[in-house]
Amino acid sequence: MTNIDCTAPTRADLRRNTIKEVARRLFVENGFHATGIAAIAKESGVAVQQLYRDFPSKEDIIAAIVAADCERIADQNTLNTALTNRDRAGIISWLVSTPCRKDECGDRLFLEIAAEAARNERIRAIFLDVRAQAFENISRAFAGLMGSDVVEDEHRTLAQAFMIISLGSVCARTLHQEEVKPASDKLIDCLIEGAK
């Protein structure tokens, strides 16, 4: 029998989740700057004062959204299990799952946060931290594909190329409404095949 925490979320947890979901939708629909705390409070049915107790600023809401997205997207347990078991197919599956997904709202939010990161030091710090975590995980995945437990420069170069392809795919899908999955998949396959 496992010891899994099955504690039901508190009312405060549910309220914060509602705020994050509403804020995400409004940031995607209207942009970060055009979405005020009052609009988030009104749409989520939470008093402005309570919202400020939960999230002292819009940046705090963004930080919470990004943290939740990273946990969901990173799927750290799957990667760690595949690396521990030296499961090449599992590592490849983990690598291709992120850039191949089509999440229009997630893509739009990503670009909105990236744009804000160019103007706002706090958002930039959050953005760079997320990028560093993703880069480390992808580097570890390439090291594992090449049979190494140690991340070296070659693995980092492949990770950087992988991230460039992924970011380019997000931009092309979102900004140009282009279907880029076949080309993106081909480039990712080339990187993975080169990691032997």
Automatic annotation (TrEMBL):
<feature type="domain" description="HTH tetR-type">
    <location>
        <begin position="13"/>
        <end position="73"/>
    </location>
</feature>
<dbReference type="GO" id="GO:0003677">
    <property type="term" value="F:DNA binding"/>
</dbReference>
<feature type="DNA-binding region" description="H-T-H motif">
    <location>
        <begin position="36"/>
        <end position="55"/>
    </location>
</feature>
<keyword id="KW-0238">DNA-binding</keyword>
<dbReference type="Pfam" id="PF00440">
    <property type="entry name" value="TetR_N"/>
</dbReference>
<dbReference type="InterPro" id="IPR009057">
    <property type="entry name" value="Homeodomain-like_sf"/>
</dbReference>
<dbReference type="InterPro" id="IPR050109">
    <property type="entry name" value="HTH-type_TetR-like_transc_reg"/>
</dbReference>
<protein>
    <submittedName>
        <fullName>AcrR family transcriptional regulator</fullName>
    </submittedName>
</protein>
<dbReference type="InterPro" id="IPR001647">
    <property type="entry name" value="HTH_TetR"/>
</dbReference>
